[in-house]
Amino acid sequence: MIRKMGFRWHLRQLMAQRDMFQTADLVPKLAERGVHLSREQVFRLVTQPPQRLSMDTLAALCDILGCGVQDLIEVVIVDEQVRKTGTGGGADPAAPAPMARRTTIRRPGQT
């Protein structure tokens, strides 16, 4: 079994605690710190946990929100077993195989 790590992204909560309810509010504040992101990129950053994040963006967010990295990102252990080899698309290995069904192809004009 592999120990899988995950994280919780608290940007939205930290913004709300500082009365920042519009994702667009971050765009100029990030630009002041040399981080130029579009409104769409900032929206995704606020609404979805990022898989990749530049250190410049992380530092700017911490400065804007007056918080530390640990306030923004909470590392957690995922409580699910992760196998080293898959079972083929995540299917339940205990589930019965689907029944094979013979198909007849009918062309137009055939009965």
Automatic annotation (TrEMBL):
Domain HTH cro/C1-type: 10-76
Origin superkingdom: Bacteria
Any Pfam family: HTH_26
Molecular function terms, GO-annotated: DNA binding
Region (Disordered): 85-111
Record field: compositional bias (Low complexity): 92-111
UniProt-recorded name of the protein: HTH cro/C1-type domain-containing protein
Species of the source: Kitasatospora phosalacinea
Origin organism lineage: Bacteria, Bacillati, Actinomycetota, Actinomycetes, Kitasatosporales
